[in-house]
Amino acid sequence: MKLLTKSAVLLAIIAALFSFAKFENCRVNGWTPPGDYIHACYSDLPALFGERGLISHSWPYASAESAVEYPPLTGMVMWATSFLVADGSDQYRNYFDINALLIALIFIAVVLIVKTMRPELWYLLPVAPAFVASLYINWDIWAVVSAVAAIYYFDRGKIAKSGLALGISIATKFFPIVLLLPIVLILIRKSQVKSLGKYLSVTLFTWLAINLPFILTTPAGWFRFFKLNSERAADWGSIWRALDIFGIHVSHLNLWVSIFFVFLALAFTLYLYGLSEVPTLAATAFFVVAIFVTTSKVYSPQYVLWLTPLAVLAMVDKKDRFDFWIWQFAELIYHFAIWQYLASLSGAEFGLPAGAYGFAIILRVGAITWFSLRLMRRSTPKFDPQNLEFLSGLGPGYP
Question: Least enclosed by CB within 10 Å: which of 141, 214, 229, 248?
């Protein structure tokens, strides 16, 4: 093993241990509010272990009312690890520890992939404070490793492997589906229509192969994930929740979320087409995921796990590090703001008022917007408006 690889593994292990220590108060005293919020050690791992019947090894998709709110591969991890927990008074802690160990191992794998793709900047991932603080909140890192692998294979021209990895990632957590936008645009710009058809076919087949058994056997439980997301109101962390806090109530929320996502996705498409050369997926994936989480009805603290590896991959060189740290600290401020706000709602003597929490949301959205625009401005290859001449046939008002 090369020295750099050993260093990457060591730094990832240290980061994983730091994150684990952050959850120690809850491991010792239990995951009960408001204590788990006050100490910022809330985790879905023990919470859903009890609430979704995993403590008794119930099938995670058996009920339309209490099925796990995750796609099948995450559900299978949640269910399978429940069998590794021995009976006794420490079941919740043991379930957390078992899953935390697996999460730490996957985190190391993510760091190694990022090191391979960005050998000059990889170290930013295991020292990113908001990322480290969020590592054990839930199982999202399982989807991150396959999404990063899909990007790695795509940029190396391995279409089938990338499509397979992306299909697995979407079957683990649905957010990686937005990566199809830059993938489609890049392959169209390269005039690789056959490769595009192959990519979409492999991704769809992989996703169906994983999901169909659940769709056919427990359709209501499988669909609960999609139902919850379609029916939820303006939820924690979203710009829509901040507007609610400040007295601006948006009706027909699903419609507005869709409109803003489509509008920003179109802007991203024009940006990509305006680049003088076809960019890599690694250089563009961060932007489309940032658009997705910014327009979404919810922004959970662990979403920074999706964004941080992609941010490191999108960075041009070491000059981007200052912007990266500004964004990370804004995420860290939000990370603690959400827990202290929830503590105040759970009866804590001290907590964060709603207005301060709304400000933390605005700060986070502003920081990721600023960071994204800074990266776009410094993107290589440079933006060239002449590449948008194809729009001239669309009518007056276009270049």
Answer: 248
